[in-house]
Amino acid sequence: GENVEQHPSTLSVQEGDSAVIKCTYSDSASNYFPWYKQELGKRPQLIIDIRSNVGEKKDQRIAVTLNKTAKHFSLHITETQPEDSAVYFCAASIEFGNEKLTFGTGTRLTIIP
Amino acid sequence: EAQVTQNPRYLITVTGKKLTVTCSQNMNHEYMSWYRQDPGLGLRQIYYSMNVEVTDKGDVPEGYKVSRKEKRNFPLILESPSPNQTSLYFCASRIDPLGQPQHFGDGTRLSIL
User: A51 pLDDT exceeds 70?
Assistant: First the structure.
């Protein structure tokens, strides 16, 4: 089955700096890679996703990149703000005809004011 | 309001006493899943369902059962709970796999003594 590794497990950055979280996956058939943000005591919420036919996707201060050859994908947050402090999870799945979703172990991001 | 409702939100119980965590969605979603969240392990999928009467195992199905007799409900059943099932549980649903984000419930914190 799929195995997703996520690094680092904790990350502290100064407000205004950039943060990068990296994930690797094992199943070359995986083609859908969502990222979730979970604030303390709340439910996970999708923040951005990418499919294997795209190398990069941006949404304001958030971007995700995908390297299919190396089987890794990364989340980039620029101009970090205090409200970016949360736990971030990457995930991988085979889209279509399947609902199996494998998550990484999470990264606790702390933005230092 | 579109939502995924889990009950109970909190439960403390004892080993071996059967329990059911209910999950209901009002969005007519076909796809539903159960996850457990443990510190350092991220979210792990227990079971998922792609339609009524169609269920399949996720990564950690042992000790759990599910049913999908109607579209809106997807209960999680612990026939004989054990302390290693103490965890935070999330139910999620989405309409189809074509990029629609999963809607998560608020979570159920189970403690098995």
Answer: yes
